[in-house]
Amino acid sequence: MPFHETNPEDLPQGVVTPGQLGETLQNPSAAKFRDLAAGRFPGQVDDGLAGNPANVNGPLGTVVNQFAAFTEDVATADPADIQGPEDLRARVNGFFGLRPVLQALIFTPLSYLLAWIVDGDPDDYDTLEEIQDNLIPALIRLPLRILAQLIGGIPIVGDAVENALAGWLKDTNETAVDAAETVVSVGTQVTYFQQVISVRSGRPLHETGPDRTACVSFPFSEMNLSMATISIGGGSHTVDITGNTGYAGGPDNHRHSGSTLNASAPNHVHTTTLSTNPPVVNATASYAPWASVIIDSATERKVLSWMAYKSGTVSTFHVDVFRQEPDGSVGPVIYSSPDLAGELVTSIAWMQHLMDGASIISDIDDVIDIQFRMTGTGTVHIAGVNFPYATPITGMRPYSPGSGRNPSTTPVPAGLTTAQRDAMYGGPTPFVGLGLDVGQTSIPVVIVDDFNRSSFGPEYKTFGNIKIENGRVKHTTSGLSTNSGAAMRVQSLNSDYFEVGFDLWLDGDVDEYQVAGAGGRCTSSLSAGIWLTANENGVYVQTGSYSSRTTRSTVPAPGSGRYTLRPRRSEDDTHYIYEVFYGDPNTTEPIADWADTTGIVPDGIGRRRVAVVVNGAAFYPSGELDNFVARDITV
């Protein structure tokens, strides 16, 4: 409908006519737009060829200045002169119809600017017509509302530019349509650290759990554990029996004569200590629990957080992310994780996962559904609670933060109708957070342990015969035959590039072959890994499970001291080479290495745990370990 035939009060909220634009934008001037552009344009350009947009003598500043003048012309024009998008063309053409000298001044920075944004060559825009062809269609297509916001934030438009802009500022948006439709979200994303995080990250841990950028399925404090110990005493009481008692049901008949029994029963006290194990929702091969997260701020979310552990055999474990539609149905899956079974341990632990190659572009009140599914005969126990669930209030979806389905036939549904989704709701609800990617999943992990205590504690899971004694790790010297023990760190590293190091004490007896050392790239059951061990007779690079290792490389032992294992890629980037250092690995050359040319030791998710290992038997002590260090290598 032409603007001049539309009453302003009939327009949707936030939409204005050209005649209202000047008042809405508070009569903007070219200077105002230059200041806005200088304040909001990415600061990386200040030191580049384009220059600061506030500098009208520089390439980018010249473009901003001319473009701002065009916008001022549109905003302050007589409404009778702009009845529709077609009336913009003449004013845009005026932007290019400059004096020859000014044309050259505009042309050069525009070509460099476009080439810089699309990562192309300025020669690709060697005529004003090519620049105009990229710029004008977008100007005509974009609503004035979006155009005004683009001028203030990112004064660059055009088909090729929009695609590059989407990939540069919002790596999850892949089309020009995304860039246009989510311009408000782009602006929010650019200023997120100044505005949203400073406010929302102030939420306490008892609401969000450790990721304070996250929207959660329910407040973390709902899983609080009672610290109470309850004692119940029945009190003493008397027992009186007066008169005769008799029994006539058996072959002989007898009775007690009428004497009196008076006795006092003792006081019975029952003490109960409440469990401190977190409440859980169980995922099995036939039941996949779901959690619904309601988004409270418009931004891009990529990080999933939850607590879980496993029991029995868990063959695979995946997390799937869906978006719930306004009618309660569920569309196609947004993201499915790789197999995370290798990350599960047998004690409760936090898990975080960064959605690789996908993200959730969310707005306030969006509902995101998250499914936990597994295969195998065991169970994945996910921290959560059981909410009361009654007949819901029709239409007030989601009906519950928790739900579930049987994934055995269709692990990842292509979509769910409203009726199918409604039938899934129930009380059990996993705790899950959906947070921002602020680098928390790629922060290098550094594990340092001096073992100055009497036991390993909850940060480790122990296997076999291993102990801490006098501040060092050693074998328990149990068993008639030589056997191994290990202690695995529950927290895994974040990278495939790492090092493990330890101080080793040897007793000097070359007739004893008991080794001690450490391993990396281990599975959560220590059924596989790469190990560096040593004894008086040698230093060994080994592979396999902690209890059955295969030696791949052997060199003479230099003695007690500091040992370190590091992997590096081969020169042709086809395999890993594991290097062994004695002393400071940053200043010494390797004393041994082993090239895994056939890929015996996999890397990646599920293969980033580290452990210490010892070997011994009765009367045959192992070497002793101390000052264990495992860390991600970032350089």
Molecular structure report:
The chain has 635 residues and is α+β, with helices and mostly antiparallel strands. 20% of the residues lie in helices and 31% in strands. The protein contains 13 helices and 36 strands. The strands form nine sheets. Strands 1, 8, 11, 14, 17, 20 and 21 form a seven-stranded antiparallel sheet that branches. Strands 23-26-35-28-29-30-31 form a seven-stranded antiparallel sheet, with no helix packed on it. It has a six-stranded antiparallel sheet with strand order 13-12-16-9-18-19, with no helix packed on it. A hairpin with a 7-residue loop joins strand 28 and strand 29 (530-535). Helix 4 (88-96) runs antiparallel to helix 6. Residues 97-103 and 135-200 have low confidence and may be disordered.
Brief summary:
The chain has 635 residues and is α+β, with helices and mostly antiparallel strands. The chain has 13 helices and 36 strands.
For the terminal residues, how far apart are their CA atoms? 60 Å
Q: What characterizes the major β-sheet?
A: 7 strands, antiparallel
User: Could you list the spans in which at least 5 consecutive residues all have pLDDT below 50?
Assistant: 97-103, 135-200
Overall mean pLDDT score? 77
Instruction: Give the CA-based shape.
Output: flat
The amount of beta strand, in percent, is 25-35%
Number of helices: 13
**Please, how many domains?**
3
Give the structural class: alpha+beta
* Rg of Cα set: 35 Å
List the quaternary state of the chains: single chain
Protein name: Minor tail protein
Organism: Gordonia alkanivorans NBRC 16433
